[in-house]
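User: My collaborator sent over this chain with a note saying "see what the structure looks like." That's all I know about it. Can you take a look?
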Amino acid sequence: MTLISSLAMWFSKSNGKLIIEWFGWEITTSPTFFLTLLLSIIFLVYIILSFALSLVNIPRETIKKLKRKKTISATKALNNGIIASFYGNKNEVLKNLNIAKKSLTNIPLLTLLELQNSIYKGDQKNSFIILTKMLDIDVLKPLAIKSLISYSITHKDKGLFNNILNKSLDKKIDFSWIRKGIFQFCYENKNWQELSIYLKKKISLKNTFNKEILSITYYQMSLDYYFSDNFEDANFFLRKALKLNNFFPPFMELYSKINTGKSNREIIKVLKNYWIKNPNPNIEKCIDYAFENKNNLSKLKIVSKVLTQNNDLYFKYLILGKFKYRARIWGSSKSDLKKSIKFRPSKDAYYYLYKIEKDLKSNKLATEEFKKLYNDCKNIFLWKCNSCNMPHDNWSPFCHSCSTFNSINNISCNNNDNIYEKNNLEKSLPI
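Assistant: Without extra context I'll predict from the sequence alone. Here is the result:
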């Protein structure tokens, strides 16, 4: 309007007239009036059109506002449902799911809430269907694979498990996310061969931890073949395990069992190298397994050939004392057992000293003293779970206390405690 007024004032000061001829009609007017009229008509048309458009858009805007309101309400319900699923409120999960489904679609969290509701209802078939759909949603793929592995564990379904392993390769799922479930299934269902194939495709052997995992897989395969009396395949996979993790104590025990009756020279050489490079108390079991057909005196000779080094280890003299006791060389056995105690008191040493005194029947007081020392001495554990700190007598690939794979490690027994001099038991040790 300001523009129109300004133009009108300008034209009012200017002389002239405007003639319009149209189909025989002639209209004469001033330029000022014509322009004022023209601009006024344009402005009026603009106002009418704007008003008309606003009338047309009222229903559309109303619908948008209603949809926006419903979406906000559905999103709030979805969030409330997810939170409710964490503290197990089944009714709230169902209620909020029904609200969210009315306005939301193709949202990962909605799929997740549907899965939780299905689990609460105990509808395994529908839960399985939802999990398979989740495999096609990038953000939910790891959870779907992990859940399907758990489903496989519950139902002992090898076919499903192997399919999921392949899926995890296709979907490029990080192995560390699903490692625990994979090993639990394989441990419970002896599915190690399929796992070894998967691992060779999935992991890099430049990593030490990955080497350990694959070596344990080969070891478990070897163990299964050993128990089914297939010693050839057992030996084949054990050698693959040892190549990745040489002189690992459990592997060496199985090696001794598998190679029973083979060349004495070769086995002695292997066990001797094992003792030199990774001395472990289980060398006693290895000798017993490998030479089970030998008499006690022959075994003692073999022990003497194997235990040629590491003279500062308490269990060297403990093992020598045990084998000498079995060979009925009691005097020397007693000497070695006491030497072992000087490094580190152990229940085994006191037990065999007690047995020697009891067999000799020469000193009842000493017999009772060794019995008391045995009862007072604490157990020495060789293995401990790094995850839950639970001590173990023997190694296992799976900690049953915290359900963790490859967490049980050897407690260092290669450094003697040298606690004998500080131990109160020293004063009462029989001569």
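A starting point for your reply to your collaborator: Strands lie at 18-22, 25-29, 383-385, 391-392, 398-399, 404-405, 408-410.
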